[in-house]
UniProtKB/TrEMBL annotation:
Gene Ontology cellular-component terms listed: Golgi apparatus; membrane
The protein's name in its UniProt record: Sugar phosphate transporter domain-containing protein
Source organism per UniProt: Glycine max (Soybean)
Recorded topology in the membrane: Multi-pass membrane protein
Cellular compartments annotated: Membrane
Database matches in InterPro entries: Sugar_P_trans_dom, TPT_transporter
The UniProt record lists the keyword Transmembrane: yes
One BP annotation, GO: transmembrane transport
Principal subcellular localisation of the protein: membrane
Gene of this entry: LOC100794276
One example GO MF annotation: antiporter activity
Region (Disordered): 303-333
Domain Sugar phosphate transporter: 24-297
């Protein structure tokens, strides 16, 4: 196969992977927003536990059918990954409760420079000037779109710091584990999802009661709300898988930068479906700036020297492009 056709194939798979992530991520945000705002199901941590329980069930079914190859991941790495992931989930929920929405958005934006720091320190990655400037432009655009009131207190700041660093570490670890152990998305989910499901379903009801003052077992489950919960869990399987695919292919920093496209789409779809606010001038301006930054980042980081690893301490693994089959494993509301 020629280098051109290989390049075209890679570009097509990259685009399909990213589209898969965008569709599932935006979909689950809209479903969860309806579930929580319309039907009052405000138990975010428990719901996330149900998401991973559904993901675990699917990986077990696919493994029994021979579509997922048996692989090994040390228990110590699973424990570290689950700790990072769970601190990320709980930290984000607590940060949103204790901080203003504006500071919460700033905390989310800070994940990009933190992820860059991890790549520079741990992987010896170096960025060109244009790549750095494009990241700044994305941050500026999303900030203009989303950051309004900004207020913070000591405990809220601590929660935000824990949330940001744990999220950045969890996303870095997705890419790290796939390269180190030559495993793909479904394999990694098969190792980590059961532990996440068990821990979140154990801790979730208590955490949600602490955050909301409501008990998940006392919620009035109706037919429609139950169907929304099932729909949320179903979409979450795709969201979890697509996150692992994208980070495996693009690294955590690129996932974060391009991930803000989902923020723009959620804003637009929120205006369309929920219609609480209009698209005012500063929001539209922020969207334009952010999209321009994403296009610039894609162009700058793909050029020679735009973003490169100076040393390779981990073995190069197979392509993470295809869905896992018995002969070959595959690769964020």
């Amino acid at each position: 196969m020629s280098s051109v056709s290989k390049g075209d194939k890679k570009a097509s798979i990259d685009a399909a992977s990213w589209l898969f992530n965008v569709v599932t991520s935006v979909g689950i945000i809209l479903v969860n927003k309806a579930l929580m705002a319309t039907y009052g199901f405000s138990f975010a941590t428990t719901l996330t536990g149900l998401h991973f329980a559904t993901t675990t069930l699917l990986t077990l079914i696919l493994k029994s059918l021979g579509y997922i190859q048996t692989s090994h991941l040390p228990v110590s790495d699973i424990i570290k990954f689950v700790l990072f992931a769970n601190f990320s989930i709980v930290g984000m929920n607590v940060s949103l409760m204790w901080n203003s929405v504006g500071f919460y958005q700033i905390a989310k934006l800070s994940m990009i420079p933190v992820s860059c720091f991890l790549e520079v320190v741990l992987d010896n990655v170096r960025y060109s000037r244009d790549t750095k400037l494009s990241i700044v432009l994305v941050l500026l655009g999303v900030a203009v779109c989303t950051v309004t009131d900004v207020s913070v207190n000591a405990k809220g700041f601590i929660a935000a710091v824990i949330a940001v660093w744990s999220t950045a570490l969890q996303q870095y670890y997705v890419h790290f584990l796939q390269r180190k152990y030559s495993i793909g998305s479904f394999n990694l989910l098969g190792h980590t999802a059961p532990a996440q499901a068990a821990s979140l379903l154990l801790v979730g009801p208590f955490m949600d009661y602490w955050l909301t003052g409501k008990r998940v077992d006392a919620y009035g489950y109706g037919l429609t709300s139950t169907l929304f919960i099932i729909l949320s869990c179903t979409i979450a399987v795709g969201t979890n898988l697509s996150q692992f695919i994208c980070i495996g292919r693009f690294t955590a920093v690129t996932f974060q930068v391009l991930g803000h496209m989902k923020t723009i789409l959620v804003l637009i779809l929120g205006f369309i479906f929920f219609g609480k606010e209009g698209l005012n001038l500063h929001v539209v301006l922020g969207m334009i700036i952010a999209i321009a930054g994403m296009v610039w980042y894609g162009n700058a980081s793909s050029k020679p020297g735009g973003k490169e690893r100076r040393s390779f301490s981990l073995p190069k693994t197979q392509d993470y492009s295809s869905l896992p089959v018995s002969s070959e494993p595959d690769t964020k509301e």
